[in-house]
Design a protein that fits this description.
Two copies of one chain form a homodimer. Chain A has 452 residues and is mainly alpha-helical. Chain A has three domains: 134 residues, MgtE N-terminal domain-like (MgtE N-terminal fold, Alpha Horseshoe); 112 residues, CBS-domain; 171 residues, Orthogonal Bundle (Tetracycline Repressor, domain 2), CATH 1.10.357. Helices cover 66% and strands 5% of the residues of chain A. In chain A, the strands form two sheets. A three-stranded mixed β-sheet of chain A has the order 3-4-5. In chain A, strands 1-2 form a two-stranded antiparallel ribbon. In chain A, α14 links the parallel β3 and β4. The longest helix of chain A has 31 residues. At the A-B interface, α3, α11, α12, α15 and α16 of A face α3, α11, α12, α15 and α16 of B.
């Protein structure tokens, strides 16, 4: 670890010195050769564009391809503009068709077209096929390089077929079985083939496939992939004809991307589509500003609520002291409930028909949480500010926690019902909503208890 | 979709009628047979304990095992207490050693011991081996059922060996190669073996393995697994001797669990270890109350800050109106930064040495966000409440956004530096911190501008 980190530092120092002479570049190439691929990706990904391009150009072909494949498509597109045509053609030719499609998508149409013409016919056909599906469709992520068997093959024939054609296949561990018009009949695992009698028929060994249609949503398809504990999943068209195969690494990448998106949106920001450290400042601002504005504008609601109660505040200015504590607690309680229910929805433990059960559960959970916090609030603020204020705090905490838990539990279900991403009613949104509602509860209780 | 949902309703109705007679139970069994495994899991997982037990008991052996395997260990342990001894023994015997270890962990020691005695010697030995590793170690998740080759084997011998012993192996698609004392020398993919000459030696085909030590942290090991795009990863002991193998489904389950934990903690709650709808209310409360108390107690800080400025509030009560809006905006900005940096840390795009770059970036990002929001704040509140208040709002939003972005960017790095989970400095914690700091900024600016 220490040595590798020391070399990363060496390469970093060389890069920063803006190497230009043959000799300097050769030294950089030599040092870079000793770095593990992960370190190279880190450097290319996080250094400014000029340094990335210099480093990338001194890599040998295999290392360059490995690094290139690890970059997000937007970053790939940028990098390409700084490379010589031959190097670009080599890299594009070596990418998998699905990765190539993502990259071409990010390039200006004229550049993409020129690159497509540089490919051989087969590669071009496969790339076009993948590019034909909508952006979030699973067809975008499949590999068209699939190796189908037919049910009439014997195990011996099938294994020979696999041996001869393995080069063209993305995976040989799960083999789709198709009829003469390429309609998917089932799948057979290589394990099963290997253990079977040589004269057995593929058709007798195959079993029903867990497959997806190429136009299916990528997240749904990836979740089905993992639920069925697959190593690969055949992808079919609308007529159930085999068009490609999805492998584990693709499914993992999709779920990772979805998790990233969800956790970003839950915190009120859009995910960045390239490395944080090399994303231009204004692009990061763009990923945050819309949410921030929407939330700030919603928060004007709280100003209006407080305006209504301005004379109470004027009478008992002490009431203002507890505003951040109360709104904070409401927001936290709401977010806890929303996070739990969003997760339960995602894994299918909660469904829309469970809405009444969710509300009833959160009502009780919120009441218990509110009773604990309320008792504490009554005690502490009662001791410091007197019984009347203590009573207001106790009752308010009890009510706010109950309300917030119900709101937090409901929001993801409502989002699902209207067909929106549950993350749209994100945590900050729930907080803002609970802020306004909580303030109304607070001043209503204060007015009643203090007789204002 | 509609038919399957209709049948779920039928089974649900039967369950709710508390079936007891032979005939009723037989009808339930018949209806349950037509449900896909996912629906059975949903019902067993989310119905009250008595209904779950009834449904589970009418399932045939394969369906019962499939459902049982899909349940979290805590839920498995509960279910077991309601079953007949023979059914329990059957299920325990059929589980994978790693799943069995998780379950035994959840059972009372006496029950676990009795169950262990019911296993045959081999199964018992493997379970004990897995149970020997600490709770978060990758050894807990590996399968000891591994099929090693030796470097001197020819491809023909190796394939014959695989065919004969495949039954005892968790996977045959990646085969570890070991020396006579079981030290891991490398791995060879089944694909490679199949395509090689029959007389080639395994030792010449093998390549260096990406492996993990059994005591390694599960999350680190799983991340390495996916970074290297593996189908399986050999697990070794401290002397590099092969002890087991980790497969894709285990690695996926670990990462899913970690994602769940992180997203829960980020929202200030502990993850539930069983289905939300069937978790007792008080257990849900327990998962939330500690965080809520800690946050509420930290929020007392905001009360103290406001107390310091109480006379300013008394003079200009209008200042109170903007408190929730300002604290909310600060919290949101901080959370956005924290989420982005936490993600970048997790995927290795940001490292500890990048701390100055992160601070410098967030300072500029926060300033731009603050400038946009501040201008808007100046305009809107200036129009409604006059120029002085407008100026206070503009300057405060600018300062709060800048401060919050820096704090949000720093917190995950500080957590990492002190060796804590970045999720510990969770979003609500950052919000609370930004609330208190933001209020100080607000009243300091107000005092200066309004000349209080």
């Amino acid at each position: 670890m220490t040595t590798s980190s020391a070399t990363t530092e060496t390469v970093l120092a060389l890069l920063r010195s803006a190497p230009q002479s043959e000799e300097q570049l050769e030294q950089l190439a030599l040092e870079a050769k000793t770095l593990p691929p992960g370190e190279l990706v880190y450097l290319v990904e996080t250094r400014p564009a000029t340094e990335s391009a210099i480093l990338f150009r001194v890599l040998d072909k295999d290392a360059a391809l490995a690094v290139f494949e690890a970059l997000p498509a937007t970053h790939q597109a940028e990098l390409i503009s700084g490379l010589r045509t031959q190097q670009v053609a080599d890299i594009i030719g070596d990418l998998d068709p699905d990765d190539r499609a993502s990259l071409l998508d990010e390039l200006p149409a004229s550049v993409a077209e020129r690159l497509m013409h540089g490919l051989d016919l087969d590669e071009r056909a496969m790339t076009t096929a993948v590019l034909g599906y909508p952006r979030h469709a699973i067809g975008r992520y499949m590999s068209p390089e699939v190796l189908p068997l037919t049910p009439g093959m014997s195990v011996r024939e099938a294994l020979a077929h696999v041996r001869t054609h393995a080069e063209q296949a993305e995976t040989i561990y799960l083999l789709p079985v198709v009829d003469p018009s390429r309609v998917l009949l089932g799948v057979v695992g290589l394990r099963r083939l290997l253990l079977a009698e040589e004269e057995a028929l593929v058709g007798d060994l195959a079993h029903a496939a867990v497959a997806a249609e190429a136009t299916d949503d990528r997240e749904d398809a990836a979740r089905r992939f993992f639920a069925a504990e697959l190593l690969a999943m055949p992808i079919v068209d609308g007529e159930q004809r085999l068009v490609g195969i999805l492998t584990v690494d693709d499914a993992v990448a999709i779920l990772d991307r979805e998790n990233h998106e969800d956790s970003a949106r839950t915190s009120g920001t859009e995910p960045l589509d390239r490395a944080y450290l090399s994303t231009p400042i204004l692009r990061v601002v763009r990923s945050r500003i819309v949410w921030l504005l929407v939330l700030a504008i919603s928060a004007i609601l709280t100003v209006h609520v407080l305006e209504i109660f301005e004379d109470r505040l004027d009478q008992v200015v002490i009431l203002a002291l507890f505003i951040p504590l109360l709104t904070g607690t409401g927001g936290n309680t709401g977010n806890q409930a929303a996070t739990t229910v969003t997760r339960a929805l995602a894994v299918g433990e909660v469904r829309l028909r469970d809405l009444p059960r969710v509300v009833w559960r959160e009502l009780r959970i919120g009441a218990v949480l509110g009773a604990v916090l309320g008792s504490l609030g009554l005690l502490v603020s009662g001791l410091v500010y007197g019984l009347a204020i203590g009573t207001v705090m106790g009752l308010t905490l009890l009510s706010i926690c109950t309300m917030a838990a119900i709101v937090g539990g409901l929001m993801p279900l409502i989002a699902k019902k209207v067909g929106a991403d549950p993350a749209v009613f994100s945590n900050p949104f729930i907080s803002t909503f609970c802020d306004a509602t909580g303030l109304i509860i607070y001043f209503t209780i204060a007015t009643a208890v203090l007789g204002l």
